[in-house]
């Protein structure tokens, strides 16, 4: 409908498109440079000396990295499963029977609270209870923010859901468990899957809370913690290789979840 | 028709607008006269809104020109044209009060503050909005919002006001009231109004003249009464009001239908598929056919299918051999009581020769 | 009603219990810590007082707070200036391409924050690509110190949060009734005027949402100043980190956290007010 105006506003359109192009360059340039350098033969990270996948080989022989990756998978999968179940139930509960602003605040807080604050709060809590720290305390902590995100995604899916369908099912003789399984679950399934993937992605990437709640020792180091200590050490081709793998995996996951639940990553 | 100086304000000259392969507007030419209320009528997708937007300047025609008082406006942007538009959604600025909305157009034009205030006050008075001047659009009813949109456009004293489906967002009752209100206001300000509508009744009530569009082509231009009573073709006949259509063969200056000759207005000479058309309210029901040789009357036999009671009148549906669809006869209360009309009865429907349109089925 | 009570408990119970135990309780503990004193050996002495708050307003910490606010504010401003035209460009693209652009913009946002930040170390360091390019072009003789300064930190923050800013502003622009903009032009306004009188005021909720998001996440940020500031740029997040893991003064760390949360809540509240005001208005445009 804007065609006429657009036809005349052509110069501003060119400027806008150019700007958008630059923004995309800004967003992807650094990532692409990183990915390209991961195939750089030389030990030096920033001068191109030839194509090679040897750094991926080096990476795969790094025991610490592999252990960290394993830990991250354990944390992410467990916290995702827990958070998905709890978050989806919460979403239904909240959407079906609206509760006041206190509930909304509790559900909103984990998404917006600075990581460092949640991290120290959990550390204080665990320390006061003299709780032994380890992978399990990371999992417990990750579920906190994952619940909130799963709940938010499922709630968008439920918005506008016709709850009389639920009553109709009960009216037709189904009990509540059957109704949940046959009527509500199919309706929210895409949202639940998207929420689970989001939660998995967040958990895999989360650093500060894991860092604070992992406890002493190497046993419960997660991949981001490993990456952090390697980055502090300096720029190495090995990090580039690892970064490339992590990026590729998360891009794939996000695009997949975008396909499952249209618009879930773009809001 | 009103007695007005037939001075052309807007001349649309062979305007064409394509979207891909589709011609939304196809070589349309129209002359709009000073101070008239003109309606562009047609089904959705007929190109009427595109044409209106071409006059406003939001659509640039691929071919043709739009002249205002003889001056070519085609290259001008909408903000340089002394033409204003009332949008279908009203497009009020939600962050501004009613008064600020109305003042906006004067402000950007650089009218000084005193003058702006005076003119805004004046137009709010005229549109009965003075009490709402400081309200925001979301605090107004649909009808009030419509009047703000009207005031905002009229305060600029445009040469022409374009209205895109101005009443579509209102409920039926308010719509009927606003039809007369719009008409009154147009007469008061004397500005040429061009209204786009898909509602034929709206066009009939408000317009001095109207054009019917179909697939981007003008089908007929004229006064509402002309279009209703003397439609130029089958489409116009069917689009404005209900029309009964009979098929037959051209013969003896009329149409031979089921062995009877139907006479009427219109030239069937080259017509490929001739039809005779007559309005439901022109038909009468009788028990026996009129005497042969009565040139003034047309008549066809039929059987009553059903009867729908509408309060002020009654619609009888007849099955007639040569008719495409069941024939509808609108009987007044008096006529309905004059006979015993019940489903299944064999009857004759007849009507006067001057109420018959003989047309080519385009 | 017992049945529906049971159902409520099944739906809400587990999740809320989790959040009560592991969100509300820990935050409450931090809140109370803020009023206690540091123990001799690093623990917490349960002596009630406001000393920590007095200390937080010590010029040393106040200047760190102000510096954090300045960096966060700068990052917010830059992100808005870059993000608004980008969001506008996406909003004016054909619907099909809009989705593609949005996914492209949001994709990096969902990848690892550390790695995204690390990418800038690679680009900005003394032997990094940017210094190499500038040297090769003969623009500089000596490599520039691009890393470990405020510039690097702001760049990193903008880079990480720009996608969300674009998304928030885009959402606002795409909710605009295009006829409103046409009406402005029809009433005689130039496109520049239309932008400043109609488009911008009506998209303030998106701008506010994006701005609060960047500011809140920047001011409490720990990773970016740590990695791109190289310890030379101290922000509130780093101080909190130090209080907990290095200085072992938990009560003071808790106080700083509470102040951070306080700033955040004020901003969120302001934003909510802006959105509420604008939304009240907006309903008028669509009804």
Describe the structure.
The complex is a heterotrimer of chains A (267), B (362) and C (287). Chain A is mainly α and 267 residues long. Chain A has helices spanning 3-8, 10-37, 54-60, 63-96, 101-112, 115-128, 135-158, 164-171, 176-205, 208-213, 223-233, 237-260. Chain A contains 12 helices and no strands. Chain A is globular. Chain B has 362 residues and is α+β, with helices and mostly antiparallel strands. The two termini of chain B are 29 Å apart. The relative contact order of chain B is 0.12. Chain C has a single domain, classed as MetI-like (MetI-like fold). Chain C starts with a helix and ends with a helix. Mean pLDDT of chain C is 85; it is low at 282-287. At the A-C interface, helix 2, helix 4, helix 5, helix 6 and helix 7 of A face helix 1, helix 3, helix 4, helix 5 and helix 7 of C.
Write the SSE topology.
The complex is a heterotrimer of chains A (267), B (362) and C (287).
Chain A: H1 3-8, H2 10-37, H3 54-60, H4 63-96, H5 101-112, H6 115-128, H7 135-158, H8 164-171, H9 176-205, H10 208-213, H11 223-233, H12 237-260
Chain B: E1 8-19, E2 22-33, E3 37-41, H1 48-56, E4 63-68, E5 71-72, E6 83-86, H2 98-109, H3 113-126, H4 142-154, E7 160-164, H5 172-189, E8 192-197, H6 200-206, E9 209-214, E10 217-222, H7 224-229, H8 234-239, E11 244-247, E12 249-251, E13 254-257, E14 260-262, E15 274-278, E16 284-286, E17 297-309, E18 313-319, E19 327-332, H9 333-338, E20 346-352, E21 357-360
Parallel strand pairs in B: 3-8, 3-9, 6-7, 7-8
Antiparallel strand pairs in B: 1-2, 1-4, 4-5, 9-10, 11-15, 12-13, 13-14, 15-21, 16-20, 17-18, 17-20, 18-19
Helix pairs in contact in B: 2-3, 2-4, 3-4
Chain C: H1 2-33, E1 37-38, E2 44-45, H2 51-56, H3 59-92, H4 95-106, H5 113-124, H6 129-136, H7 150-174, H8 178-186, H9 191-202, H10 204-219, H11 223-228, H12 236-245, H13 250-286
Antiparallel strand pairs in C: 1-2
Helix pairs in contact in C: 1-13, 3-7, 3-10, 5-7, 7-10, 8-9, 10-13, 12-13
Query: Uncertain runs of chain B with pLDDT below 50, 5 residues or more?
Result: none
For the residues shown, what is the average pLDDT of chain B? 88
Percent strand of chain B = 25-35%
Oligomerization: heterotrimer
User: What Rg of chain A, in angstroms, do the CA atoms define?
Assistant: 23 Å
Structural class of chain A: mainly alpha
Helix % of chain B is 25-40%
Return the CATH topology of the largest domain in chain A: MetI-like fold
Named CATH topology of the largest domain in chain B:
Rossmann fold
Radius of gyration of chain B: 24 Å
Name of the CATH architecture of the largest domain in chain A: Orthogonal Bundle
Output the CATH homologous superfamily of the largest domain in chain A. MetI-like
Number of domains of chain B: 2
What share of residues are in beta strands of chain A?
Answer: under 5%
């Amino acid at each position: 409908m804007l065609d006429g105006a657009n036809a005349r506003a052509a110069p501003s359109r060119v400027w806008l498109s150019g700007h958008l192009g630059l923004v995309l360059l800004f967003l992807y340039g650094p990532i692409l440079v990183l990915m390209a350098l991961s195939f750089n033969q030389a030990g030096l990270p920033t001068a191109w000396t030839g194509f090679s996948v040897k750094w991926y080989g080096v990476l795969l022989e790094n025991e610490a990295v592999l252990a960290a990756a394993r830990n991250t998978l354990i944390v992410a999968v467990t916290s995702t499963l827990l958070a998905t179940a709890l978050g989806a139930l919460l979403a239904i509960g909240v959407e079906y029977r609206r509760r006041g602003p206190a509930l909304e605040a509790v559900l909103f807080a984990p998404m917006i609270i600075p990581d460092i604050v949640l991290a120290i709060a959990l550390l204080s809590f665990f320390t006061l209870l003299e709780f032994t720290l380890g992978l399990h305390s990371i999992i417990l902590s990750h579920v906190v923010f994952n619940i909130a995100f799963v709940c938010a995604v499922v709630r968008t899916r439920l918005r506008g859901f016709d709850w009389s369908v639920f009553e109709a099912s009960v009216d037709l003789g189904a009990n509540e468990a059957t109704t949940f399984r046959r009527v509500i679950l199919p309706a929210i399934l895409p949202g639940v899957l998207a929420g689970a993937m989001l939660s998995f992605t967040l958990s895999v990437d989360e650093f500060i809370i894991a860092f604070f709640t992992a406890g002493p020792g190497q046993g419960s180091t997660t991949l981001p913690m490993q990456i952090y200590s390697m980055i502090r050490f300096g720029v190495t081709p090995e990090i580039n290789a690892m970064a490339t793998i992590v990026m590729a995996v998360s891009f794939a996951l996000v695009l997949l979840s975008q396909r499952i639940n249209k618009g879930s990553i773009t809001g | 028709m009103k007695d007005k100086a037939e001075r052309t304000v807007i001349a649309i000259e062979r305007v064409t607008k394509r979207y891909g392969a589709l011609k939304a507007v196809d070589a349309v030419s129209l002359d709009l006269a000073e101070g008239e209320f003109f309606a562009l009528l047609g089904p959705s997708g007929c190109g009427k809104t595109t044409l209106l937007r071409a006059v406003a300047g939001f659509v640039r025609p691929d071919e043709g020109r739009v002249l205002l008082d003889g001056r070519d406006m085609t290259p001008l942007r909408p903000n340089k044209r002394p033409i204003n538009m009332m949008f279908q959604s009203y497009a009020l600025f939600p962050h501004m009060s009613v008064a600020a909305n109305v003042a906006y157009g004067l402000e950007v034009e650089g009218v000084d503050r005193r003058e702006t205030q005076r003119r805004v006050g004046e137009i709010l008075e005229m549109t009965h909005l003075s009490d709402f001047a400081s309200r925001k659009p979301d605090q107004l009813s649909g009808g009030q919002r419509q009047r703000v949109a009207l005031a905002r456009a009229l305060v600029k004293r445009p040469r022409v006001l374009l209205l895109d489906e101005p009443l579509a967002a209102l409920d039926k009752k308010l719509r009927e009231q606003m039809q007369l209100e719009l008409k009154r206001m147009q007469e008061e300000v004397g500005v040429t109004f061009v209204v786009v509508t898909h509602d034929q009744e709206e066009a009939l009530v408000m317009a001095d003249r109207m054009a019917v569009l179909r697939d981007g082509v003008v089908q007929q231009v004229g006064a509402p009464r002309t279009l209703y009573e003397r439609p130029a073709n089958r489409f116009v006949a069917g689009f404005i009001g209900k029309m009964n259509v009979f098929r037959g063969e051209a013969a003896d200056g009329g149409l031979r239908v089921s062995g009877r000759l139907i006479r009427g207005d219109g030239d069937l000479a080259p017509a490929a598929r001739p039809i005779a058309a007559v309005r439901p309210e022109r038909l009468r029901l009788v028990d026996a056919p009129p005497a042969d040789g009565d040139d003034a009357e047309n008549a066809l036999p039929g059987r009553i299918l059903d009867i729908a009671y509408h309060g002020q009148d009654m619609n009888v549906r007849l099955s007639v051999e040569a008719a495409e669809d069941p024939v509808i006869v609108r009987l007044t209360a008096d006529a309905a009581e004059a006979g015993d009309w019940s489903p299944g009865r064999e009857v004759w429907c007849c009507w006067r020769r001057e109420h018959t349109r003989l047309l080519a089925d385009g | 009603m017992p049945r529906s009570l049971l159902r409520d408990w099944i739906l809400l119970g587990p999740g809320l219990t989790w959040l009560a135990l592991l969100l509300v309780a820990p935050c409450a503990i931090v809140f109370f810590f803020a009023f206690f004193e540091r123990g001799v050996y690093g623990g917490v002495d349960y002596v009630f007082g406001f000393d920590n708050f007095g200390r937080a307003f010590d010029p040393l910490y106040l200047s760190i707070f102000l510096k954090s606010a300045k960096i966060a504010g700068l990052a917010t401003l830059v992100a808005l200036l870059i993000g608004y035209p980008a969001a506008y460009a996406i909003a004016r693209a054909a619907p099909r391409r809009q989705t593609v652009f949005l996914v492209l913009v949001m994709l990096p946002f969902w990848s690892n924050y550390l790695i995204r930040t690390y990418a800038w170390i690679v680009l900005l360091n003394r032997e990094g690509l940017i210094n190499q390019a500038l040297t090769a072009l003969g623009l500089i003789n000596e490599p520039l110190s691009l890393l470990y300064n405020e510039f690097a930190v702001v760049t990193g923050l903008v880079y990480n949060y720009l996608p969300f800013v674009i998304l928030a502003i885009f959402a606002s622009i795409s909710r605009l009734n295009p006829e409103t903009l046409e009406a402005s032009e029809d009433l005689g306004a130039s496109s520049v005027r239309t932008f400043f009188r109609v488009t911008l005021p009506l998209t303030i909720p998106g701008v506010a949402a994006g701005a609060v998001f960047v500011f809140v996440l920047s001011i409490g940020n720990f990773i970016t100043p740590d990695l791109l500031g190289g310890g030379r740029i101290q922000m509130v997040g780093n101080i909190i980190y130090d209080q907990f893991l290095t200085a072992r003064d938990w009560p003071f760390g808790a106080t700083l956290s509470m102040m951070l949360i306080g700033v955040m809540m004020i901003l969120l509240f302001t934003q909510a007010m802006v959105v509420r005001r604008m939304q009240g208005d907006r309903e008028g445009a669509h009804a």
